[in-house]
Amino acid sequence: MRAAVLEAYGEPLSIESVEDPEPEPHGVVVDVEACGICRSDWHAWQGHGEWADDQVPIGQILGHEPAGTVARVGDRVSRFEPGDRVAIPFNLGEGSCPQCRNGHGNVCEDGYALGFEETVPGAFAEQVGVPHADFNAVALPDGVSTTEAAALGCRYVTAFHALAHRADLEAGDWVAVHGCGGLGLAAVQIAAALGANVAAVDIREDPLELATELGADATVTAGNGVDVPAEIESATDGGAHVSVDALGRAETCRNSVDCLRTRGTHVQIGLTTDAERGEVSLPIDEITRWDVTVVGSRGMPPSRYDELLRLIASGRLEPDALVTREVGLEDVSDRLAAMSEYETRGVEVVTEL
Ligand SMILES: [Zn+2]
Ligand SMILES: [Zn+2]
To answer: CB within 5 A of ion ligand 2: which residues?
Structure first.
């Protein structure tokens, strides 16, 4: 099969012919019909993560936001058969550890990160293997297309889990979203659909216009010395109840914490770059003084996809509204390079494999 392989950090991915994957006894192989291109791919492609012992190995097939149709199943798989349409979470569990058994498969103690580890080659390829498929794969309802499911990627599900489960968002709350890339725009649309008021922040006008189309009530253009927390406090009449750093830079993280009102919740969903190397200084005394909550969030347990898919099937959430471009496998390197200059807008999906 054809696959896009990481041969050197920061260099174009190599389109190669590689062996077709075979399902493990507990796994399935999926014909990939769509796979989102994500800033996490960009981080991997840049060789980030060395500081956290999390650098993607050379030779990796990238791509972690796939949806498609089951092609082959292992002997021990009972929930799926060839022809079933599925979405695949990027953070795969093995299904039996205490986290998996308690509904937190996204933080499995012995899990896999699809497309980031040698044992789980990614989905910038014609086919992808999915281990522990009964636990991990998510059956798609008729009303959700594979392109739409790929647009869920890691970003949309991460934003949903962050807002609906980790921040415990309530209708009428003000939500600030810092950084309006694919992850931030997903947070904007989801927060609005869950009944919140949304203030979107970015340094670029273009994604802020898209944020407004997706339901943002207020926008703040950052940069040029703008005091972002002050702007948000004014737009939200006292600060955000929930604030999300969807970018992962020291400045966006700090602004997110600083723009909260008393007892607010900051949710970190963006990963840092090699400028921060995973470390950002925060106003701990303020966090303590005002009962502020700081949480992290990554992916979503496979057992909770149903909540999100029901909202999509009913038309209340429209992840395909974030899709701005559909490309072929050989275009992935160009689109990753465009991310270096923050030139991409919304969510881009590979649909020609
Ligand atoms: Zn587990
Ligand atoms: Zn992703």
So the answer is: 38, 40, 153-154
pLDDT band at 248 (very low <50, low <70, confident <90, very high): very high
C-alpha distances (whole Å) from 316 to each of 66, 72, 142, 214 are 22, 33, 16, 12
Q: Residue 271's pLDDT is what? A: 87
Whether residue 51 has pLDDT greater than 90: no
CB 21 within 8 A of CB 70: no
3-state DSSP call for residue 311? helix
Distance CA 324, CA 26 (A): 36
Find the range with the poorest average confidence among 41-50, 175-184, 195-204, 242-251.
Answer: 41-50
Handedness of CA 232, 211, 155, 334 (dihedral sign): negative
The amino acid occupying position 79 is R
Span 98-116, average pLDDT: 96
Query: For position 342, what pLDDT does the model report?
Result: 82
Its pTM stands at 0.92
CA 30–ligand 1 middle distance (angstroms): 22
Q: How far is the CA of 263 from the centre of ligand 2 (A)?
A: 30
Q: Are 280 and 273 in contact (CB under 8 A)?
A: no
Q: Is 141 helix (H, G, I), strand (E, B) or coil?
A: coil
- Percentage of residues in the chain with pLDDT exceeding 90? 88
* Whether the Cβ atoms of residue 296 and residue 265 lie closer than 8 Å to each other: no
Looking at the CA of 88, which ligand is closest?
2
Distance 99 CA to ligand 1 centre (A): 5
Say if CB 103 and CB 157 are below 8 A apart: no
What's the 143 CA to ligand 1 centre distance in angstroms? 30
- Angle (CA) 255 250 237, round 5°: 5
Neighbours of ion ligand 1 (CB under 5 A): 93-94, 97, 100, 108
Q: Which ligand is nearest to the CA of 302?
A: 1
DSSP state of 20: P
State the pLDDT at residue 273.
82
